Predict the 3D structure of the following.
Amino acid sequence: MKICFASLRKRINYTDVLEYGMDVFYESYRHYVRNNPQHEYTYYNFAFGPKGAVRNNDVIKEADVIIFPAVQEFIYFVDAMHPRDIEKSQNKIRELYNDLNNKHIILMTQDRGVDEELIMTKTFEGQVKPKSFQVIDEMDFTGCLQGLKYYFIKQTYRFPIDKDIDFIYWGSDKRKFPNPGNGKAKQSGDERYDIIKSIHKNPEIKSTIIGRWPSSMKVEKKWISLKEIVGYLDRSISTLCFNWIDQTALTGRYHESIACGMFPFVWKDYDTNNILVSESFQRVLTKEEFYDKLKEVKRNDKLFDNIRNDFLKRIPSEEGYYKEFEEVLNRCFKLQ
């Protein structure tokens, strides 16, 4: 079988974990390739190594299967980028439409806003007719594939450091859904912007915000790799985990928080099924409740210890995740 791993937008020269947002997929796929030499592997706009990623349309044309890891694909359709940049990116994808027709496509996604409908109607603009379309989601794995981030962070050398930040949030505001048709992006109703902005303005809370936010939010850094963000997380006492679209799902923020010794509070119905959330104390319904519980966490180290110990019982080992990934990908191949 000829399998093409294709980064349709951003050129990726993958060198190490914690450098790219989808490293849990990239690293899992690297292990799959090593363990399954029976297939023929090619890459489009992606390479394992510091160089080599090129846009070669022929590898798309010749492949039987296209694996598409989608990195925050919804960003291109929520009025968050300059139209010129979006059009430039779309034009490159349009060159592939004919070659993507009648191919088996596997989407790898780690965002509630990126699914088959978004890819087929927005990214491919309704112009691609695949032979099959399957989705591998981060939630197809025990405790979420983002559990690998825990191991990646723990294996990274870091200097011991004091915790001098009460609260940290890293990510984006998620205030908009992808736009319908050619219309303006609609509001998502997600609460994190207002909540985090209020916490950030509280003079009694020392907080740090990293990521893509409106100008009204003062951020420490616009965006940096997780490897750099970890330095801030190690200094922090707590964070708040939010989700949008699907409250039964998890986010990498929870796993990253545990790895950095930081208490993972969760907002309202996050992880509704308690896949990882083990204590009702973690859930907060209001800003005031967060402030009260933060004081308790700062007084009592055992609160975090209990959460961490329970977390480690619920996720697989690093090798266990790679085995699950191989099983999930092989199932996709059998369904074609």
